[in-house]
Amino acid sequence: MDRLVNKRILLGVSGGIAAYKSADLVRRLQDAGADVRVVMTVSAREFITPLTMQALSGHPVHTDLLDPSAEAAMGHIELARWADLVLIAPASANLMARMAHGHGNDLLTTLCLATGAPIAIAPAMNQQMWADVATQRNLLMLQEKGVHVFGPASGSQACGDVGQGRMLEPMEILQAAAGVFDHQLLTGKHVVITAGPTREAIDPVRYITNKSSGKMGFALAEVAAEAGARVTLIAGPVNLATPSRVQRIDVIRAQDMYEASVAAVEQGCDIFIATAAVADYRPVVTADHKIKKSTEEVHLTLVKNPDIVAAISAHSKRPFTVGFAAETQDVVAYANAKLINKKLDMIATNDVSGTNVGFNSDNNALTVIWPDGHKVLPLASKRQIATQLMELIAIRYRQ
Ligand code: C5P
Questions:
Q1: Which atom of ligand 1 is nearest to the CA of 279?
Q2: Active-site residue set
Q3: Using alpha carbons only, what angle is made at residue 336 by residues 333 and 337, rounded to the nearest 5 degrees?
Q4: Which regions of the chain carry the CATH code 3.40.50.1950?
Q5: CATH number for the domain formed by residue range(s) 190-398
Q6: Residue pLDDT, tens place only, 325-360
Q7: Which residues, judged by CB distance below 6 Å to any ligand atom, belong to the binding site of ligand 1?
């Protein structure tokens, strides 16, 4: 059920005896890795208390449209934007009618109008109410609007009737909710990205490093998370905010980046992208104290750092492996050599001799090369380049 990892689910609960099952649904969504916030209608609160849902979800339950304290914490528009999926379980006949006709007379229906996220309902009602022509018409209207409808199931009902109208079981709703995210490019995939420079200490105040802002790797992490992936970002020392839903591991030395990368791959990684500008060498010894300016010459002996991306592509649990190459001359020839020598699936290369691309710039242009093809991604923002590159990676990964 990786498809629900990091997903933000706004669980709407309307009035009906099946509301007690929503408590279990909260747990199951959380177990699948989702972040759950609960909104309850007035009648839902007759069946299950907001306190129960608050205790289970770990967040205050939203109940009223015009509640100043709730609005101060997370306003209804913010909540509507926050959600990746609005899941309403149970959805009563009354709620379906109000949704179908575009009402916004309480918090839940207002959220349905205000969200850009997909909406799914798990109807639950008496079999006669479900079969009623008005309910069926509303159902059709909701389906035409693109609302996903999970169930209802047939069977014996709380009122003693037998027929269609039972809410699906929480496990079935969970599976159907995961299916909503199936279309995403990287749903369920674990993407590991190295970014930024590494620092190799000479003494407590001096170090060897490479020029790198980390912006390209962070942009890729953001785009991968938006495409549904679980993202681990192994970052050298950079001054950048962690993109939302990305698990960040901060490292300093190449050796630490290497160890964190191998550990992430051993956990199970589908795609590894090495954007980091790793220091090729480190001092053999790091002085315990600041080295004094006592002599005219100082000689540093350096030793090679592990090649992280080459180690990952040689790993027994080898993921789809993508390297980067920043060059100042013969860009494509050098990149091709690295693709072969490091046994990569793909390499993204850029010419950093100019000032408008690479390193600290917000823009980039890449030539992306794989064993039997290449594509030029012309100058654009790092975010746009990251989106295009991630699409290429996802396509090649699936082949
Ligand atoms: O050999 P070069 O440093 O030019 O190769 C660049 C590519 O290899 C980048 O993807 C970089 O992140 C990766 N690399 C690495 N570990 C190193 C050196 C480079 O993962 N020690």
A1: 21
A2: 159
A3: 90
A4: 2-178
A5: 3.40.50.10300
A6: 988 888 889 999 999 999 999 999 988 776 666 566
A7: 194, 254, 274, 276, 278, 280, 305, 307-309, 323-325, 338
